[in-house]
Amino acid sequence: MNSLVSPLVTTNRCTSEGLRPQDLGRQLAFTRREFLRAAAGLSFGSGLMASSLLPYTGIPAKRRKVVVVTFGGGARDQETLAPEGQENIPHLIRELIPQSAFFAQVVNRGILGHYVATASLATGRYETFNNFSAVPPENPTVFEYFRKDLRRPASDAWVVAPSNGFHRIGESGNRHYGAGLGAGVILPKRLLAAALSGKPGEHEHLLRDNYESPYFAPELAGHEFELQQLDAILNLSASDFRAHALTLSSPDELSVYIARRLMKQLAPSLLWITMHDIDIAHAGAYSLYIEGIRRTDRLCAELWNTIQNDPEYAGKTTLFILPDFGRDADDDGGGNGFQHHRTGDASSRTTWMMVLGAGVRAGRVFDRPIQSIDLVPTVGALMGFSPSLSQGTPVEELL
Amino acid sequence: MLPAELTADNFDGYPPEARKLAVGSLSVFRRLPLTFLPNLLREIIEYDFRFPSERRTIEKELANLNSLSTQETNDWLSGFARIRLSPSLEAMDWVSDPAQFVEQLSAFLWSSQQLDDFRNAAVAYGDRLRKVVPADSPPAPRLGIAVIGKGVDEYEKPLFQKLRSYGTYFDRIKPENGLNTLLNAVTARAKSLPTAYGHWYVDGGQAASPHPAVACISYAALGAARVALSARIRNEIEKPGIGPEKLRSLLARMRPEDLGFSKEGDPILNRFQLRILTEGSGTQIFSTTFVQWTAREVLRRAQPLTLLVRFAPRQRQKPMNALLLANPANAELDPMGSLVDGDMGAYYNWINQRSLAGAEQSSFLAWFENHSQAVAIGPSMPRGTVSTESATLANLLAWMA
Q1: Phi and psi angles of residue A379, each rounded to the nearest 5 degrees, phi first
Q2: Same domain, B318 and B361
Q3: Tell me, what's the pLDDT at A165?
Q4: Which residues of chain A have pLDDT under 50?
Q5: A354 closest CA partner among A119, A26, A54, A69
């Protein structure tokens, strides 16, 4: 792992502020709850106030759909949920959070690198592979459980992801699952690179990549496989794709465009979209980090509107939005504030999750600690499959 | 090899001063856990190129460790001793290349889920060390200055929001000749408080000529080094099998002359600038990041009495490869975004200055260049207040003194 992501551990830079990490995590959750109560009118939920998907919606498990969006790159409270940050997420605050069940203390105890952390989210176990290796997750992914247990075709589970290593995230190396049972993975930047035949020109801004290791930016190379994906899966000609891409402003906009196209063409029951624009923070430019947050906020709202307005999804889809992890606190001497997620401090490990749509009792905030690996067993309980190797626990407030 | 097996010969590859220090501390080293010692060696191996304040810190830490009995040493470092290491880490040449070991240790701690244990051990050790060996008080109150917003004619949103609660916000500053006023103030302090590497000026563009007693670093002056580094990076990443970790290791081994730094120049300053460019993420491509990271490292390492930083417009965002390839002379600039970067950077400068000894007496001034807004923080400046008084920057400096 690169020390740009992992901490260069030091023995003399760490400071304690008198609170243990778990106390800081609770404090973060408490302040999030108070911010949300004030800004979005949420009420404090109790773990005993569980919803029940079937009686609440009348939707049997086999017809349910789940969309997972990782609020990519990770963002901190002071730029999002705290009073001074709420101007950056107007869509979440005004539109989405009031319709959601909001979990204010989601703890990631794993490696804080984006590919490995996203893989941990997708497997329900803390994966331990090298963040910069193009390897599959070691443990079965949510896509494999879904397809194997429910006998779903390959067209029913998809991942739309940034391209730095994420192309292996669709299926694991587990010999009981793995090959042929995973999700299709679409890497929009590679699609675009293929459609452009290596001449970025006016599309250059859509090919930004690999923020975690700014030094290392291998050329994106699209090829025949990506062109086939465009034609056969997305029903999109290279020229139409190029033309539409010119109307977009960032790689995440490109990802959402592709996700919508997938929803229209295949209507997958399990769709996973990894946002990444926010991670420009690694280059240290605060204004670009804020731009990324504002864009991701808008794109989340657009996705939710798409779900609401598409008959294949409306009324039967549960949307999960969560960062893969946070970013370092300003006052941790081992880090450099918003720029990285190196320290493993409470700010970088503690994040949130909002859940909207089918089966969700809206307008409640829960501040008991849950873990990011609880996502997979929760999705499993909602959709009716059994993620037997996951180490997480289903979130009972959603079941 | 384990620390208990260390001999003086193991340090033959160290620079002269570092070797002398290490050999003189052998008996201490042999008692330290392997999870701890390479971190210390990472500091010591660069001893010849460290700033005076860093040297004193290392010496005091070694003196403290030397004063501890074996039982006390075990007690101080028990958290580190409980960390499990892999055989491959134990087999590394951690004496010759402690930085590489620490990098591998970092990855191992994450993957073995021992990072929190290590972090707790480091916090406990650091807290205990600071109690026993407090940092030196500065000979005079520190002064930090951040100048932001070069090239921005108008900006309607409020600035210095994060700093205002700690000091007094002024919105009727007379900006005329402001930068010269600040540079002159830095020069005056450098003359009246002569200290090696005690007074600094960091500029995100072309630096004004500072007094020789002021250490000066600028983004523009490092243009040739940045171009050389970008070319080296481009060359390396085109090689098959290279990845971020190998690239990182390669950068860590670079010497100042690899980037064209003159051998006649100040070797300590040259080494410092090399580290800024090879260790700082984004310092090669964005001048605002360069300034913020340099200021952070100046404060952390040199612990200066005076630090003036001036943010200048950075280039607009592009794909990383395009940024690395870009000719700095032709880069399209983003003054407005750079103002926002600088506003946050000024806040980070103050946080980092506040973490140094003598924080209660230190002062900090942030100014929107050629405009009327500034915030002044210091013992004499009321917190969370707004002043509508018309004033010059010289007035502010006098009030803060």
Answers
A1: -60, -40
A2: yes
A3: 73
A4: 1-18, 47-51, 214-219
A5: A69
- Spatial CB neighbours of A347, under 8 Å, sequence gap ≥ 6: A24, A28, A76, A77, A326, A327, A328, A329, A332
Of B124, B289, B355, the CB nearest to A284: B289
Residue with tokens 């006649």: B264
Domain of residue B191: give its range. Answer: 143-222+280-400
Average pLDDT by stretches of 10, chain B with 401 residues:
96 98 97 97 96 97 96 97 95 94 91 92 95 94 98 96 98 97 97 97 93 95 93 82 78 92 93 96 94 98 98 86 64 94 98 97 98 98 96 97 88
Interface of B with A in 59-88 (CB under 8 A): 61, 80
Which residue of B297, B299, B320 to mutate against A (max A Cβ within 10 Å)? B320
The conformation of residue B313, written as its DSSP 8-state character, comes to: P
CA B191 to chain A, closest CA, distance in angstroms equals 31
B177: region left, alpha or beta (phi > 0 left; psi from -120 to 50 alpha): left
Is CATH 3.40.720 what the domain over A21-46+73-285+307-365+373-398 is classified as, yes or no? yes
- Residue at a domain's end among B111, B132, B153: B132
- Say what the ipTM of the complex is: 0.93
Contact B317 A285 (CB under 8 A): yes
CA distance A313 to chain B (A): 35
Asked whether residue B50 is domain-assigned, the answer is yes
Calculate the alpha carbon distances from B333 to A275, A289, B152, B258 in Å. 27, 17, 11, 28
Which residues of chain A make contact with B119, given a CB cutoff of 8 A? 9, 14, 343-345
B46 domain residue, yes or no: yes
Q: Do B320 and A214 touch (CB under 8 A)?
A: yes
